[in-house]
Amino acid sequence: MSRKRKGRGLNLKYAVLGEGITEQWYLKHLKDLKGYKYSIRPSLFADIGIEKAEDIIDELISGGCDQIFFLTDYDTIINQNKKAQFKKLVDKYKDEEGVFICDSMPSIEYWFLLHFTYTTKEYLNYEQIEQDLKKHIPDYKKKIKYLTEDRWFKQLMSNGDLDKACSHAQKGLKKYQKGNVGEHFPFTKIADIIREFEKQKNNQ
């Protein structure tokens, strides 16, 4: 049973939470382009861990936020040996209406790659997928100065295709959820939250 929101102390309806600066800047550029209605946390754009993310989600719930989206890279969870901790986080909010835990394997760069091509090639980490992403965005890098500027995002959205990325992501996620795949089989749930962002926008 979902818990009821306690109030509207934070005066937010929708909030997105990125575990790292790549997610946060992608969400910032996406909001500017598409006119989505969410607020981005943390507001100062910094890497956070699962523990900090949980604190922020709890704060947003207590403040009466209607929908909360948490984006994270699953390769970080594996490499930092936090699979049990992440499962505990997912279990905590699984019945919480309006909380979406959105993990990507190995990282959000898989979502970016799906804007250009469909693949289920297994990547152990970000460094491996970076090479394939650079075939489409040659100067891509995970540096704050680079991510802050929107040139890479414009390449992603103009040379790639958001609708195609959603279709590719859903196709891959179905295959992942059927099971019988390797530990590093790539997946992303970002297409699901894009659909929610569109609903928010159309409900204004």
How does this model look, in words?
The protein has helices spanning 21-34, 50-62, 74-79, 83-93, 108-113, 126-133, 144-148, 151-159, 162-178, 190-202; strands at 14-18, 39-41, 67-73, 99-105, 187-188. The chain is of the alpha/beta class and 204 residues long. It has a 5-stranded mixed β-sheet with strand order 2-1-3-4-5, sandwiched between helices. Helix 1 (21-34) links the parallel strand 1 and strand 2.
Task: Estimate percent helicity.
Answer: 40-55%
Please work out how many helical segments DSSP would assign.
10
Largest beta-sheet characterization:
5 strands, mixed
Order of strands side by side in the largest beta sheet?
2-1-3-4-5
Count of β-strands = 5
Q: From the helix content, strand content and strand pairing, which structural class follows?
A: alpha/beta
Q: Per the principal axes of the C-alpha atoms, what is the gross shape?
A: globular
Distance between the termini: 27 Å
Uncertain residue ranges? none
Order of helices and strands: EHEHEHHEHHHHHEH
The proportion of strand residues reads: 5-15%
Mean pLDDT: 90
> What's the alpha carbon Rg, rounded to whole Å?
16 Å
